[in-house]
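ok here's the first one, seq then struct tokens
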Amino acid sequence: MNSSDRIAVECRDVAKRFYYYEHRDGSLREWFVRTLRGRPRKETNAGFHLDQLNVSVSVGESVALIGSNGSGKSTALRIMAGIYSPTAGSVRVNGRMTAVIELGAGFHPELSGRENVSLSGAVIGMKPGEMESRLESIIAFAELGDFIDTPVKYYSSGMRSRLAFAVSTAVNPDVALLDEILAVGDATFRKRCLDWIDSFRARGGTLVFVSHDLDSVIRLADRVIWMDAGSVRAEGDPREVVDAYLASVAP
């Protein structure tokens, strides 16, 4: 096995820019006047950005991204997941990946839980019937029972969260990207998530996750990356990096 085979996730010189409109034409007359004067019809300024992200995660490693709100950790995770395209740089993921980022965000509210399971399987490229073969275990994990045939719009937030996590993890991934999973649901659901993470890691799965639950970060991570203002401020031993982060935000 060469060195590249041992890398599960790699971000190389990744940058991401988000723009907001400072001016946008509001009428045909304004558009005409600005065109005659040679002024742009839309003026944009760079908003939040991610700068020169270089992260390499080895196969079987568990890495946590921490930092204050708006620091760039969730943006980094979404770039790894392919939800956002980087403005510059490259991202590489080896193996089957699952991304549990916005629980239930992709469900169609008019379809039943069962129908959404099948749809989710098709979206991620599973063969027809492959997700259906996992349906019983998905229902058991989500504890939905007969509600699996009820339209998702009638589900509570907890039911949607349980189903989304069950669907995302039923694909037997090699790499799991998780965003604040331990911050949703009740204590039973969080324990079920932790149990899955423990079993996933035990079989050699690679985990990259975002969390504000620093006790869980220390428990689950082999390495912690502290994001600050779109850049990596520190990375290394979980306890040392968490302590440094806490010291920086202490009043």
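and now the second one, same deal
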Amino acid sequence: MENIENTASEKSRNILVVYYSRTGATRKAAEYITKKLGADMEEIIDMKKRSGIFGFIIGGRDALMRKETKINEIKKDPSKHDLIIVGSPLWAGNMAPAIRTYLNKYKTDIKSVAFFATSGSSNQEKIFEEAKNLLDKEPISLMGICTKELKDDSVFDAKIASFTENI
């Protein structure tokens, strides 16, 4: 993987990476982006049990129905950051309920936004359009990354570099 050390100019920006990850794929991307940009990071925890096959099925159903869920209390106030980078897995073609809840709850506190999504496929446009409409803000950068790309360091590095150069 490329050297992900951040520069002084990147470090001076006040950026928060928020993400939800059921399997760890979105967490991997969030950690990498956080380190590259010298950002703060916050994991959004869904208080509803989403583990195992039943958690997977119920999570997909809830995402498809665009339901919200109860999330943990956040530690990092989004209003104190200039940019919020939001990461969500793609479930049944939609954002995870925990991210939907976060965006609805804190949308007035988000000054500027960028989105990334992880999925088994490469069809993330729908989630980006929905998040943009939910916040009524044009994102400064978008990145969709599928599972196989997370496992290929050169592809992963290139995607992250392209995503972060707009930030």
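notes on #2: Residues 8-165 form a domain with the Rossmann fold fold (CATH 3.40.50.360). The first helix runs from residue 8 to 12.
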